[in-house]
Specification:
The chain has about 220 residues and is an alpha/beta fold. It has 10 helices and 5 strands. The protein has helices at about 15-25, 40-45, 70-80, 95-100, 115-125, 135-140, 150-160, 165-170, 175-190, 200-210, and strands at about 5-10, 30-35, 55-60, 85-90, 105-110. Strand 4, helix 4 and strand 5 form a beta-alpha-beta unit. Helix 3 runs parallel beside helix 4 (about 95-100) and helix 7 (about 150-160) crosses helix 8 (about 165-170). It is globular, with a radius of gyration of 18 Å.
Length: about 220
């Protein structure tokens, strides 16, 4: 039986550790990389001997206080022969749609069962694709929800999570005024569908209501 080499990109230590344990318990998998961000993985992969490079990258898309995954980089990895399975909270459907177009082999939600995660890993490694009907519906988007750009979604998620405007700008590697512009665009787009967003609490309310944040998780700040 051939052992499949797997890389994990997940910024939350508890989730990453549990994913490692899950794969180790299943057997037949070797974790060759486990880290917090896609750029960190890319640097490692460029230096790793071919015999140690992974067959599959299990990838979280949204990373706290760092840039989100770059779909163009994912496309490069996929064209290089790497299979990519997204393990995501699906906080940014627009970003998920972009990485699907970039060629990822599957999407599995963080709320899915551990059995589903293992089934998705096995399916993708076997050359199949993985996406449940429920996930496809989430990715397709709610037609009643304002259509935010990836950067606007990122700004909303970070600001609603508790970051200040200055911290948001630093996390997105943009200027303070640009960060304010993104938040203002979010406010105007919600206003256009009759949903007022006037305070930081309002940003949190719409982020939770529309699935950009999990309200069961603690916010920062």
């Amino acid at each position: 039986m051939t052992t499949a080499r797997i890389a994990i990109v997940e910024d939350h230590l508890l989730q990453r550790t549990r994913t490692e344990e899950l794969l180790a318990r299943a057997g037949g998998y070797e974790i060759v990389f486990s880290g917090e961000s896609a750029p960190e993985f890319t640097r490692w992969a460029e230096a790793a001997p071919r015999a140690e490079r992974p067959h599959l990258l299990l990838l979280d898309l949204m990373v706290d206080r760092q840039p989100s995954v770059n779909p163009a980089q994912i496309e490069v990895l996929v064209k290089g022969g790497l299979k990519v399975l997204v393990l995501s909270a699906l906080a940014s459907p627009a970003l998920v749609r972009q990485v699907v177009r970039a060629g990822v082999s599957g999407i599995v939600g963080k709320r899915d069962s551990e059995d589903d995660i293992l089934a998705a890993v096995a399916a993708v490694l076997g050359g199949d694709e993985w996406m449940t009907t429920e996930l496809a519906s989430v990715i397709a988007g709610d037609p009643e929800r304002p259509a935010l750009s990836v950067q606007e979604e990122r700004a909303l998620v970070l600001y609603a999570s508790g970051l200040s405007v200055d911290e948001l700008a630093a996390a997105m590697n943009i200027g303070r005024e640009t960060a304010k512009q993104y938040l203002d665009r979010v406010k105007k787009k919600y206003a256009s569908v009759g949903i007022p967003v006037r305070s930081k609490l309002d940003y949190g309310r719409v982020a939770w209501a529309d699935g950009y944040l999990d309200p069961s998780l603690p916010s920062e700040g």
